[in-house]
Amino acid sequence: MLIKLYDLAGAEDDCRFSPFCWQVKMALKHKGLNAEEIPWRFTEKEAIAFSGQGLVPVLVDDDKIVNDSWEIAHYLETTYAARPSLFNGNIGESGALFIKFWSAQAISPLIFRIILSDLFENLHEKDKAYFRESREKRLGMTLEEFATPNDETITALQTALSPLREVLERQPYLGGEQPYFGDYIAFGQFQWARAVSPIQLIAKDDAIYNWRDRLLDAFDGYARNASGYVV
Amino acid sequence: MLIKLYDLAGAEDDCRFSPFCWQVKMALKHKGLNAEEIPWRFTEKEAIAFSGQGLVPVLVDDDKIVNDSWEIAHYLETTYAARPSLFNGNIGESGALFIKFWSAQAISPLIFRIILSDLFENLHEKDKAYFRESREKRLGMTLEEFATPNDETITALQTALSPLREVLERQPYLGGEQPYFGDYIAFGQFQWARAVSPIQLIAKDDAIYNWRDRLLDAFDGYARNASGYVV
C-alpha cells in the first residue's frame, strides 16, 4: 500500500513549503520510497486527528502512523533498514541531531524574517487568521514587526550559514560524498523559502548554492520540479 | 619515544589555555597516548620553526611533525587506527568538521569577548605586544573595545550554545554514549576560558555544565587537574 504523507500546502495545492515536510520527502526518496503527498492546511486539524496531534508531517505506512520529521526519519531508518541509510549509524544520528537544533536556532529565525511576508501571501485564506494568531503569540510581536527582509537580515544569514558553507567548501554534502539526513534538514530550510519567496538567499558562487543545486537535481529533479521560485 | 606536543602557555608554565591544544590533548588521551607537553609562547617562533610555520599545536611523533589540531587528529586517527576511534568513520568526521566551524563562528568570538581581559592578564610578558598587535589587526579594534564581559554577551553565548545544549539534554556526548573528536573541539572552548578566567559561562543546572564535568573527569581527571578556575 502506498505510503501517505500529509504535507503542508498554501493557497495552491502545489505550494508545499513546510521545511519539516521537505526533510521527510527527501528522506523517503533517499530510501527509494514513493508516497502520496496529501495537501493539508494548518486549520484542517480534523483531517489528521487520527495521529493524536495537530501538526504535519504525518506519515501513514500501512497500519503505522508517525508524526514529527525526526521521528519519521527514525521510523524509516528502522523499518527500511536494508535500504540506503539516512544516518549511517549512531554517530551520524548525533551529527544530524546537532544540525536539527542548529538549523532551528541559528538559521530558521533569519529565513523566517526574510520570507515571512511572501509566506503569508501564499497561505490559504482559511489559514491566515490561525497563522497570524499562533505566530504572533510565539514571536511576541506582529508579523509585520518581525518581517525584516532587508540587507541586514540577509547579511546576518550569511554569517550564520558560515559553518554549513565551510563544510561544503571541503566536501559535496554534510554527510561527506553522499547526502544524509542532516543534509535534508538544512535543505528543508531553503525549500521553505524557495516555495514562497523570490528573494535570493544565497549567491550563485556560494558553495551552499551548488550544494542546494545538487539536492534540487537529486532523485530525478524531485525537489527542483516542485512549485517554487528560481532563486 | 614519547610524543612531544608544543602547547601554548601563559606567564606561568602550567597555564595552558589554547583551545586548539586542548582538542589535541584530549584526542591523545582518547587514543591512550601520553605526550610531553612542552610549554610554548606566541613569540617563540624559532622553537617550532622546524614545523615550517609559527603556531601551536605542533606534534612530534618520532620522525613525524604535524601542526594544526584538525590535521593532528587525522594523523592520530590514521597512525593509531587500532586504538579507540576519534571520528567513528567518515560520517563522524563530517560531523566533527561542522562542530569545528560552528565553534569558530558562533561560540569562540563570544567567549573571547568575555575572557579577553583575563586572558591578556595571564599572558607571558614577552607575548603581550605580539598578542595585542596581531589580535587588534584581526579584530579591527583595540582589545579594550572588543572585551565585553557583560551580561549581554553571556546571554548571547547562552543562545549561541543552544544546539549543543539541546543535543546534550538528549544524550551524554555529541558523539552519543561516548565522546568523539567533536566533543573535544567544543570542550576546548571551555578549557580556554577555565584556564584564565573566573567568569562562569554556564549555569550549574545546564546540560552543558554536566557534559563539561564528565569531560573534566575523563582520563582520571586529566583536564580537571590542569591549572584553572573552578567555574
Automatic annotation (TrEMBL), chains A, B:
Which ranges form a coiled coil? none
User: Where does the signal peptide begin and end?
Assistant: none
Q: Where is the GST N-terminal domain?
A: 8-84
InterPro entries named in the record: Glutathione-S-Trfase_C_sf, Glutathione_S-Trfase_N, GST_Omega/HSP26, GST_UstS-like_C, Thioredoxin-like_sf
A Pfam family of this chain:
GST_C_7
Which PANTHER family does the record cross-reference, listed alphabetically?
GLUTATHIONE S-TRANSFERASE OMEGA, PTHR43968
Protein name according to UniProt = Glutathione S-transferase family protein
Q: Which organism is it from?
A: Scytonema hofmannii FACHB-248
